[in-house]
Structures are given as C-alpha cells and as structure tokens.
Design brief:
- With about 350 residues, the protein is α+β, with helices and mostly antiparallel strands.
- Helix 1 runs antiparallel to helix 2.
- It starts with a helix and ends in a 10-residue tail after the last strand.
Length: about 350
C-alpha cells in the first residue's frame, strides 16, 4: 500500500524548516537578553523570510509531485489490472487450444481407424469376389455334371422300361472306371421272354457272388435307375423327392424280372462318418417306406446306408465338402439277390 504523497511532502517540508532554522542560528538562545540585540539581527530576519518563501515554493512543488505520483500510481494499478486480465485470458485461450488439439488428435485416430477398417473391407470384398468367381465356376461344372447325369438317367430309364436293352448304354468318358465293382454288359443275344420283362444280366467278370445291377450298363456299377435328393442334414422327403420316389416305385412295379431292389443312402462329407452313415440309412429307409406304401414288397427291398463312404459317393469329393448331389438315395434294380458290399 503506497503512503499519500502529501503526507511525505509535509514531513520533508517540516524537516527542511527545522534544518534551515538551525543552520542560520535562529535556534532559541537561553542566555540572550532582550536589551542585548546584535546589530545584525535585522539582516538575519530578512534571510529567514527568503528561506521561508523558498521552503513554501519547495513544499508546493513537492505537493504537485506527490499529486502527479498519485496519478501515476493509479494509472500503474490500472495497467497491472489490465495485464492480469490479459494473462488470465491468455491462459484460457491456451487451455482451449489444448482441448482443441486433443480433439484433433482423437479425430485423427478415428480417421486412421476408419481407414484401416476400409482397407480391411476392401480386402474382404476382393476375397468375396474371388470366392464368388470360384463358386460360379464350380456351379458351371456342377450344372454340366448334372446335365450329364440327367442324360444318363434318361438312358437308364429307357433301359428299365419294357423291352430296354442295357447293352446300348456306353460308358461315359468323363467318369473313369474304378476297380471296386467289375461288371460286363455285352450286346443282348436274345429278346425278352415276355413283354415288359427286363433282359437277363450277362455273366460277371468277377466272382458270381457280386449282384448284377440292372440299368447300370457301366463297368463302375454306380448308376442307379433313379435318385432322390434331400436337403442338408435331413432325411425328410421334399415334395419333389417324394414324386421322384413314387415314379421309381411305379417303374419297378411294372417290371417283371426284378429280384431285389437296393436303396442306398448317401451324404456329403460334412460331419462325422458315423453320423453320416446313420443319416444315409435314415434316407434310404424313408424311400423304402414310400415303396412299401406304393405296393412293393418289403422283403424284396434291401437298404444300406453308405453315408460318406468314399468309394460309394455319387460325386467324389474331399472331406468337409457340402456337395448337394451327394445328399441323395440311389435306387438300384437287381436281377439276383446279393449282399450289401462291405464298406468297413
């Protein structure tokens, strides 16, 4: 806290007056008498007046200087207050700038994350396009295979019809012959013994215990007279599958030279072999039930669940492949009773 400059000036003026009086010898003299005045007293009185006037002038100047100092002190205090306000405003702006910098850094991090996510999505899209291209190529191959199988099934249906000749069906060059079943079908040498009868099977190349499959006409012995397809992991007949099973039952009922009917259930290679064999058995039994309801004797129906047995798959695939054409039941007309092939 600053002292009033007027008070300071007053103290200075008082001190100056006392000092002046002492310096001029005007201090009281206890030994002086009224009647013994020196002749120079009048001159000393005149000097005192001049000193008094000089002191008054100095006091006035000091008072003016004190007022000026007071004014300057007020201005300085105002400047200090303004500087303090500017400092606080600068601190607030620096804090706001720091917050904006943090927000900008967070946005940069979000942008980087979005860029990474976009790159990953573009990679996934490229992979999906590659997979789609492969699926289209696979679908085209399957459609070609299906067309071939349909064409061969039509030929087999023709053979199964009255008066059909299995020797007219030639092996397909697209399906290599295998060794697990060896059949020979030479040209027919005689006409059927009665109308509607299927020609007798030719002699087997291998042991006579192997049954002859009528309508196969191939050395691999895999071609059924009909196939009934199922949905994935299901043994329930679809409407289309039921119609196909009924048509096969009708054709078999019209044939007179059928020793046994083999119904073989297949699956794709997804899942365990044990579960798939049980699923193939269930599918074969579902078709057998339709045959019995259609009037065929249960005693002449032979059921086997091949499941995913590699040697018996309609379309050979690796393990873990969801091949739709393997989710089926093959229906075989056999001229002589035979045991189910050993698949263990």
């Amino acid at each position: 806290m600053r002292l009033p400059y007027a008070t300071i000036a007053s103290f200075i003026a008082g001190g100056a007056a006392v000092g002046f009086a002492t310096g001029t010898g005007m201090a009281p003299n206890p030994f002086a008498t009224a009647d013994l005045q020196p002749p120079v007293a009048v001159e000393q009185q005149g000097g005192f007046d001049e000193a008094r006037a000089a002191l008054d002038s100095l006091t006035e100047q000091l008072t003016m200087r004190a007022a000026e100092l007071e004014r300057l002190s007020g201005s300085l205090n105002a400047r200090d207050t303004e500087l303090q306000n500017l400092t606080e405003s600068l601190a607030r702006r620096e804090a706001r700038l720091e917050e904006e910098s943090d927000a900008l850094a967070a946005r940069d991090a979000d942008l980087q994350s979005l860029q990474t996510s976009l790159t990953a999505r573009e990679t996934a899209l490229s992979d999906a396009e590659t997979i789609l291209t492969a699926l289209r190529a696979s679908l085209a191959e399957r459609e070609q295979s299906l067309d071939l199988r349909e064409s061969r099934l039509i030929d087999l249906e023709t053979v199964a019809s009255p008066g059909g000749d299995p020797s007219k069906i030639l092996p397909s060059p697209s399906e290599p012959q295998t060794e697990h079943v060896a059949l020979a079908v030479p040209a027919a040498t005689s006409a059927p013994s009665e109308p509607g009868a299927i020609p007798a099977a030719p002699p087997l190349v291998t042991a006579s215990a192997t049954p002859t499959i009528i309508g196969a006409g191939l050395a691999d012995g895999k071609m059924p007279i009909a196939e009934v397809h199922f949905e994935s992991a299901s043994a329930s007949l679809t409407p289309g599958g039921l119609n196909r099973a009924l048509q096969a039952a009708e054709r078999l009922s019209a044939s007179k030279n059928i020793g046994r009917i083999r119904i073989a259930g297949h699956t794709d290679t997804l899942g365990s072999p044990t579960a798939n064999r049980a699923l193939g058995q269930a599918r074969a039994e579902a078709v057998a039930d339709v045959f019995v309801q259609a009037g065929l004797s249960r005693e002449m129906i032979e059921i086997v669940g091949f499941g995913e047995t590699p040697a018996m798959l309609p379309v050979p695939t690796a393990d873990g492949v969801a091949e739709p054409l393997n989710r089926c039941v093959g229906i075989y007309a056999m001229s002589t009773p035979g045991d189910v092939p050993n698949i263990n």
